[in-house]
Design a protein that fits this description.
Layout lengths: L2 H41 L7 H35 L2 H4 L1 H23 L3 H19 L15 H17 L1 H6 L4 H30 L6 H9 L20
Helix pairs in contact: 1-2, 1-8, 2-4, 2-6, 4-5, 5-6, 6-8
Bound molecules: protoporphyrin IX containing FE (HEM) (2 copies).
One protoporphyrin IX containing FE binds next to helix 1, helix 2, helix 6, helix 7 and helix 8.
């Protein structure tokens, strides 16, 4: 396997080994937290230990970072892969620097969101982190599948990441709001996030089937160009560019 293939595999590897196991534990603790709260409200006591709420929140905080991390890995692979392919560094170094800066801004604003206490700053850093993710997603090289957005790994991935940022931003409100309105908002939005994560498992493995290894790429491109799924064809990769004497 070439170096590029290994970089491509980093994203699915982290998703499978880190993100999905975390989702499992976070959802388990979420259900226990809810069950405990409802049992205590109706029966006055519950056998579920009170620590489940804390565990849900601590692991939820990790989950936010893990999801943003995995999205940044995929976007970095797409965007920087395109920069290298198109030799953009020599043609437009400012654009490359700006894109790298936006990666930095995303990570910095997420870090500051973890620290922020005041509602205003949480709003500011959450908006900054979310907007920079969207801006990165709009760059050349990202496979967005816009014509089929309803099954797009990209659109759902960005939506899930934004929902995680939002969960982190409203964490304090969930505790402070006595009417449980924010709690309900959290449950509704994150149930949607859970469905999206399940969908990401499907569309992600589908993407793995579709993305060729580096050496296969010129052949696969020809298959698409000649529409080999519709008619018989013979595929030969283009010859390597001749070195000029
Ligand atoms: C797939 C992801 C998630 C799901 C399905 C989920 C779902 C839930 C549910 C069902 C509850 C219990 C609500 C109740 O008491 O009725 C809860 C509580 C809570 N969640 Fe999440 N959540 C998720 C991720 C997160 C994340 C990423 C964070 C923060 C970064 C978070 C923060 C909280 C907080 C602060 C509470 C209140 C805990 C308590 O009462 O002790 N959740 N969540
Ligand atoms: C937490 C769940 C996941 C999220 C939020 C997520 C998000 C993303 C995003 C935003 C992209 C960039 C857009 C694109 O190139 O399509 C992407 C690409 C990709 N994802 Fe995922 N993904 C997740 C899980 C998975 C899983 C489980 C797999 C496979 C087992 C996977 C495989 C891929 C592949 C192969 C690509 C293309 C990479 C490339 O072209 O550079 N993803 N993902």
């Amino acid at each position: 396997m070439e170096f590029r293939d290994v970089i491509l595999l980093l994203h699915p590897f982290v998703a499978v080994v880190v993100v999905f196991p975390l989702i499992g534990i976070v959802v388990n603790r979420a259900l226990q937290t809810r069950q405990r709260r409802l049992q205590t409200a109706t029966e006055g006591k519950s056998k579920i230990p009170p620590v489940v709420g804390q565990e849900h929140v601590q692991l939820g905080r990790w989950l936010t970072s893990a999801v943003i991390g995995v999205v940044l890995l995929a976007l970095a692979n797409d965007v920087f892969g395109n920069i290298i392919d198109k030799n953009m560094w020599t043609q437009n170094p400012w654009k490359v620097m700006l894109i790298s800066l936006i990666f930095g801004v995303t990570i910095a604003s997420l870090t500051l969101l973890y620290q922020a206490k005041a509602r205003l700053w949480r709003g500011v850093f959450a908006t900054l982190a979310g907007t920079s993710l969207v801006v990165l997603g709009c760059q050349e090289g990202v496979y967005r599948k816009t014509e089929q957005w309803y099954v797009s790994h990209y659109y759902y991935g960005i939506t899930a990441a934004l929902l995680m940022i939002f969960s982190l931003a409203i964490l304090r409100e969930i505790y402070q709001d006595k009417t449980n309105r924010w709690r309900t908002v959290h449950i509704v939005l994150n149930s949607i996030a859970l469905l999206i994560f399940i969908g990401q498992g499907f569309t992600g493995t589908q993407a793995l089937l579709e993305v060729p290894l580096a050496w296969q790429e010129p052949y696969i491109q020809k298959l698409y160009e000649q529409q080999c799924d519709k008619k018989p064809c013979t595929v030969q990769a283009s010859p390597a560019p001749q070195a000029t004497p």
